[in-house]
Each structure stands twice: as C-alpha cells, then as structure tokens.
Amino acid sequence: MIKNIDFSKWWSLPTTEKVIGMENYDEIKLLDFGDFYINVTIFNSWLVIALITLVCWLSTRNLTAETKLSKWQTVLETAVLWLKNETQETSGSSNHQYLGMAIGLFCFILVCNLLTFIPWFRPPTASLSTTMALAAIVFMAIPYFAVKNAGIKPYFRKFIEPIPLLLPMNIFSEIFSVLAMGLRLFGNMLSGVMFASILSAFIPLIAPLTMQTLGLLTGSIQAYIFALLAIVYSSSVKKEETN
Q1: Is residue 62 packed enough to be buried (19+ CB in 10 Å), middle (13-18) or exposed (0-12)?
Q2: What does DSSP assign to residue 21?
Q3: Which of 10, 17, 46, 58 is surrounded by the most beta carbons within 10 Å?
Q4: What are the tens digits of pLDDT across the range 185-220?
Q5: SS3 203
Q6: Which residues pair with 32 in a beta bridge?
Q7: Looking at the predicted structure, is the pLDDT value of residue 47 above 60?
Q8: CA dist 81 → 40, 74, 111, 154, 229 (Å)
Q9: Closest by Cα among 71, 70, 101, 69 to 86
C-alpha cells in the first residue's frame, strides 16, 4: 500500500546548493510503500527505458525493403550498421553476438545524457547505483561469452596465465577493471552536473545552454566508450584456433 506520493520533488528544479552539495538522487522518494520506495533514479530510469521502447516501436512498425525509406528507418539503420561495424572490429567476431548488449548500453546511457537538456531531469547515470548496475551487466557478460565461445577451461585458465602465482592479481584485475567502468561513468556525469550548476550561479542564462551542449558531446562519448569497453572485456576470451 502506498503511504506517500510526492512528485513535486521530481519536476522541481534542483537548487545550486543541493547540486553542488552532491544531492543523492537515490534518497529523493517519489512513491513510498513503507518497506520500499521508488526514488528519482529508478523512476527516471523507467522513463528512459520507456522512451527508448517507444522510439524503437515507432522506428520499426513500418519497416520496408523498398528503395524509398522513411527518415525513422534511415536513422535506425544507420545507427545499427555503425554499431555493428564497431562491434565486429572490436570483438573480431562476425556473428553479432555482442551487438544486442552494445546497443542496449549505448542507447540507455546516450538517452540519459540527451535528456539532461530538460532542466528538471536528473540523469540516472549521475547516480552511482545506476552506473554500478551497468557495470554489473558487463561483469556477468564476461564469463557468459567466454564460456559460450571458448569453454569453461579456457576461461579459468586465463587467471593463471602466464604463471599461477598471478591468480589473485588476475582476479582482482578483472573485478576492478569492470568497477572502474562504472566509477568513470558516474564521475564524468556527476562532475558535469556539478560544474554546470556552479557556472549557472554566476552566468544564469548563457552557462546552462553552453554546458548542456558540451555535456551532450561528452555524454555521447561516454556512452560510446562504455559500450566499447563492454565489448572488449566480453570478447577477451576466444576459442583457440587449431591448424
């Protein structure tokens, strides 16, 4: 049973003091059910997922193989072909097995960054819980694709190469490399929000638009880097070719 509903905290503009003070989006409750609650981070994540789903549905409902394509299909095919080529070149695999994960991570992070143009929208990627959840997806994808492509033995063998004494270091290296992905994305997104709020206090009209434009560029780069690193780590173990 819902005990409290307060969406005023969702659409209200965050004050400069709160943003600079690193206001935790996870602590802003919108729906309180008592034992658990829906915070701004979760709700905005749902909005991003719903928006991506809607755009994908609108883009694919009238797909055609004719020569004349709609603008939606042209943009969609261009984006998918670009990501497919990047995935193939990075992973060295031609069966597109990493494409779904790459598109999902790239689109989610990119849309979160695009929506920062809305003044009251608090991007989920500026919350450590979200970026760590994305990193957890990559962490689970690494052994999945490794076992799928090479088998269990080659996957575990990599932890004792080149010598068994490096086993602890190799384990920590795999864990911390994925954690670094989430921390890097969180740091870049949060620093952008904080820097924009500081400038907005001194130049309230020019600074927000300038920083949002710059944030769009850096956010797109961050989405690309995160998806690319996910492919690199997931395709690190491959089946050994025999002559």
Answers
A1: exposed
A2: T
A3: 10
A4: 888 777 766 666 565 555 555 555 666 666 677 778
A5: coil
A6: 4, 37
A7: yes
A8: 34, 11, 19, 31, 19
A9: 101
